[in-house]
Design brief:
five-stranded parallel sheet, 11 strands, alpha/beta, 9 helices, Elongation Factor Tu (Ef-tu), domain 3, disordered N terminus, FAD-binding FR-type domain-containing protein, 351 residues
């Protein structure tokens, strides 16, 4: 029953019931007091460390992709294995080198035929040396590449381990006059191998088409024969030419000053058996005479490729360019013109 003169709104306000208990939110000062009291009783251990961890300046780098062997030194130790006397003044020195992708970054590795090895003997000066062995096949690096990628075998767990080491043989073509220290290298000497120099022969492009250029003629002299040997023995997975699969004629015209200066004579037959490349040698004739006198060579200019390995002799290279022009051979690879340099990602050490 409503009292006289009392509105419904006033009745609603006056009949409101208060809760039995009142819950009030602590003030900021009270909250601080409670926190301080709690922290005084409990030791500060992990909380502060967690907060510092999140504020670590280079924390984002913990999750960044890493280049294999990016933190490894550029120069690594090698070992003398043996040498082979090619001529009275030229040796092929065989050394053992590290090739593991966990220890040798890709930018420093021997990747292309025509690259030069950087060598130091007994902490001496750096020397760039022609290489007569081909780049190392991927089969030697298969296991270590799987490790670098982080692959695991069945039932294998990730554990701390040592870096994998893989060694292989590297052949250096040296003369006693130009590289006396390497020519006289022995097991008692200290050998260091650095990043390989140059980008090698420019073998990319139409030359890689075995049906587009089934006929290949190679001209070599001086240290160019070392590059020719590496090219003949290179497998297809390291930019080899697949010479065995090319159906046309294949020749290696090798010129030297004297008969005694011709190198690898005992290997010509094995090269021909493995690659189908016939070796033609001469000591007096010019390259043009050697090419013209080869009555067994049959070729179509449009499907023939020429590779000029003159060992840095510019005059001989000009002679060969003129020869190719007369023979109407347009696909030409020159030792003096290297392939395009590889561009590595910005986070690499060499960037």
């Amino acid at each position: 029953m409503f009292a006289k003169g009392m509105s419904s709104m006033q009745l609603s306000r006056s009949c409101r019931c208060k809760p039995a208990l009142s819950y009030r939110t602590p003030s900021a000062q009270a909250r601080w007091s409670i926190t301080r009291a709690a922290s005084a009783k409990e030791p500060q251990t992990e909380v502060a460390e967690e907060e510092d961890l999140w504020q670590y300046a280079e924390r984002d780098q913990w999750y960044a992709a890493r280049f294999a062997a990016d933190d490894q030194p550029d120069w690594v130790a090698g070992s003398f294995l043996r040498y082979k006397q090619l001529t009275p003044t030229i040796r092929e020195v065989v050394v053992g080198v590290e090739i593991s992708r966990e220890r040798i970054p890709l930018r420093n590795a021997y990747k292309h035929v025509g690259q030069r090895a950087c060598v130091r003997i007994n902490s001496g000066t750096e020397q760039e040396v022609p290489v007569s062995s081909p780049p190392f096949p991927q089969s030697l690096l298969r296991e270590v590449l799987l490790t670098v990628r982080g692959d695991l075998y069945a039932e294998e767990t990730k554990t701390a381990r040592e870096l994998t080491s893989v060694t292989a043989e590297l052949s250096l073509f040296v003369s006693s006059e130009e590289y006396p220290d390497i020519y006289k290298l022995s097991a008692e000497d200290t050998l260091e191998i650095g990043p390989f120099k140059g980008s090698g022969l420019d073998l990319r492009g139409s030359l890689l088409g075995i049906f587009q250029h089934p006929t290949v003629v190679i001209f070599a002299q001086g240290s160019g024969i070392a590059t020719a040997k590496a090219l003949l023995l290179a497998s297809s997975d390291v930019c080899g030419l697949n010479l065995r699969m090319r159906t046309g004629e294949k020749r290696l015209y090798y010129r030297a000053r004297t008969q005694a200066a011709l190198t690898y004579a005992e290997e010509y037959e094995a090269w021909e058996e493995a690659t189908g490349v016939k070796v033609v040698t001469a000591t007096r004739d010019s390259f043009a005479d050697m090419f013209d006198d080869d009555d067994t060579l049959e070729y179509e200019p449009a499907s023939t490729a020429a590779i000029l390995l003159t060992g840095g002799d510019e005059e001989s290279e000009e002679e060969l360019l003129e020869l190719c022009k007369e023979a109407e051979i347009n696909c030409i690879v020159r030792q003096s013109v290297e392939g395009a340099l590889t561009e590595y990602l910005a986070k690499g050490k060499g960037a």
